[in-house]
Design goal:
Blueprint lengths: L1 H6 L6 H13 L5 H15 L10 H12 L5 H22 L4 H11 L10 H16 L11 H20 L3 H15 L1 H10 L14 H7 L5 E6 L7 H8 L2 E7 L12 H10 L2 H8 L2 H16 L15 H12 L27 E5 L16 H17 L5 E5 L2 H12 L4 E3 L5 E3 L1 H4 E3 L5 E3 L1 E5 L8 E7 L11 H8 L5 H7 L3 E9 L7 H6 L1 H10 L4 E5 L1
Helix pairs in contact: 2-3, 3-8, 4-5, 4-7, 5-6, 8-9, 17-18
Length: about 550
């Protein structure tokens, strides 16, 4: 216990807990003078003001969720940025995590009503990173927050206990037994000890040169190897930070086909009229994609291989894997195989048995889309909520994901689920899945997430047995030019987001939407992925029905 405390970064309330535990365990075995010092320290710590560590776990989790939901990119902020900033503001006030800088940035974000790109996105991103570090990790990396008096007192108590053990019969065996018991039961202490001696450290891009990292590494924050995960999503300035810390090797891991660095559509439209086509194309490409292509070109010249492209996927049913490969990757020479057996993905869901893809047509007559920048469609939301409840009740061992391209539609689905007892509304007006629907046991006995509802961004890196994709857009707007095309289809035209949305499922993908939106030459070009999926549903492996 003493070693774990001294070596491990701890929360503000941890010293008091340690003192109480030591008193309970050691009172009968240490000299009265040490017991007196422990009691004085306990009284002192009991009078200390509560810190962040005293916060309720649920309150901390909700605050962290609200902070992670802050929109720091122009495209995402235009959808639901002000609303999410307002929610974060409420959560942080409730926890007392509030200062003038936080108030200034979040208030500006919550009250933003302009159509132009907000000037404070960089500051909002920095604030988000700082708050995630503060809320998400109770312990600073490699910098134990030990209480000075307790740090000096614990070794004295340990020495006293060893002296007592050596004086007793079988003292050596008792010490060895205690050590073995710690190894078997003090999981946190063992984990922290291993971490303190490891040669691997992890941080966000910006925090790779932050205070906590410098505390762990000292003045020398250079690493032999630097690995950046989700590198395709980092903007160039953020990505340069960890890259500049590498001494010998940089390894970037990412997929520029799935949610890379992108431009806000309205800004992109303005650029089309103010800069050359070559400049616009360059701005659309992430730094990860630029480097990937540059390394391929250098390999063609000198024969040295600097890139690796994964050519097999193990998440999806082979039919769905082939669809994703052929639609989103093969056109760029990056197709992949699906080696797992079909039998591993069999399901018996009523109405979908033997099928891996389904299109549920929700025509315009059932109700059109509503909303400003963030769209919603009630008919789709209510049907999805009802169908998820039906299927999840039949197969409690399966996981279900509901994806929308718009946050307003995700809220619409959660609101429909609230009527069925599947979700609940929080004090700040947001929704979340109820505890009874959050987790379940798979057929193999593993604890898995049972239900998730959200936008595409919330599903990056996730996988579910069954995924519902709400198309949301349903209108009769005419298409005459590129601008009207974007007004009609919106986020459905973003191939990278569509790629993520259509590759989260393992056994079954169900798209709910207005099939009439896919008709016409303009739709076939702008919505290539959805059109291809509709064709798949018309084959022997799919199902096409009307809601």
């Amino acid at each position: 216990m003493a070693a774990a405390y001294i070596a491990s970064p701890l929360t503000a309330d941890e010293p008091l807990r340690v003192v109480r535990d030591v008193q309970e365990l050691c009172r009968s075995y240490v000299p009265p003078s040490l017991n007196d010092r422990l009691e004085v320290l306990r009284q002192e710590l009991s009078r200390s003001p509560a810190q962040l560590g005293d916060a309720d776990d649920d309150e901390r989790a909700l605050a962290l969720k609200a902070v992670r939901a802050l929109r720091t990119e122009a495209a995402a902020f235009g959808d639901d940025g002000p609303r999410n900033a307002g929610r974060a503001l409420i959560r942080l006030k409730n926890m007392g995590l509030f200062d003038e800088a936080t108030h200034h940035v979040l208030t500006d974000a919550a009250e933003w009503t302009e159509d132009s790109t907000p000037p404070f996105l960089a500051a909002l991103k920095s604030l988000q990173d700082a708050l995630i570090d503060q809320l998400g990790a109770e312990k600073p990396v490699g910098a134990p927050l030990v209480h000075g008096d307790l740090e000096s007192l614990l070794p004295e108590i340990v020495d006293a206990l060893y002296s007592k053990a050596r004086e007793s019969a079988g003292g050596e065996d008792a010490v060895l037994y205690e050590y073995l018991n710690d190894l078997e039961h003090d999981v946190d202490g063992v984990r922290d000890a291993v971490r303190d001696y490891t040669v691997v450290l992890a941080a966000t891009c910006q925090q790779s040169v932050g205070f906590q990292m410098s505390q762990a590494k000292g003045e020398d924050t250079v690493f032999t190897n630097v690995i950046v995960d989700e590198a395709a999503r980092s903007n160039p300035l953020d990505l340069f930070i960890p890259m500049s810390r590498a001494e010998r090797r940089i390894i970037l891991v990412g997929d520029h086909r799935q949610l890379p660095h992108i431009l806000e559509p309205d800004i992109e439209s303005q650029l089309d009229h103010s800069v050359t086509e070559a400049t616009t194309t360059a701005l659309r490409r992430s730094l990860f994609e630029r480097l990937f292509q540059a390394m391929k070109e250098r390999e063609a010249k000198d024969g040295i291989r600097r890139t690796v492209t994964l050519d097999q996927q193990y998440r999806m049913h082979p039919i769905l894997g082939s669809f994703v490969s052929d639609t989103f990757y093969a056109p760029y020479g990056e197709g992949f195989a699906s080696p797992r057996r079909v039998e591993e993905f069999v399901h018996d869901l009523p109405g979908y048995a033997g099928r891996v893809a389904a299109w549920v047509d929700m025509p315009l007559s059932r109700g059109r889309e509503h909303g400003g920048q963030s769209k919603r469609r009630t008919a789709e939301a209510e049907w999805i909520a009802k169908e998820v409840e039906r299927l999840a009740t039949v197969r409690r061992d399966l996981s279900f994901g509901v994806i929308s391209f718009y946050s307003a539609q995700a809220d619409e689905v959660l609101q429909a689920m609230e009527k069925r007892g599947m979700s609940e509304r929080l004090d700040d007006g947001s929704y979340r899945v109820k505890d009874a629907w959050r987790e379940t046991r798979s057929a193999e006995g593993r604890l898995i997430e049972r239900l998730r509802v959200g936008t595409v961004d919330a599903f990056q890196g996730k996988e579910f047995d069954v995924v519902f994709l709400s198309m949301t857009r349903s209108n009769d707007l005419p298409v005459t030019d590129e601008r009207s095309l974007r007004r009609k289809f919106g986020h459905l035209m973003l191939e990278n987001r569509l790629c993520v949305a259509m590759s989260r499922q393992q056994r079954l993908l169900i798209v709910v939407g207005d099939a009439a939106m896919l008709r016409g030459e303009a739709s076939e070009k702008a919505l290539r992925g959805l059109v291809a999926f509709r064709e798949l549903c018309g084959g022997k492996h799919g199902l096409a029905v009307s809601a």
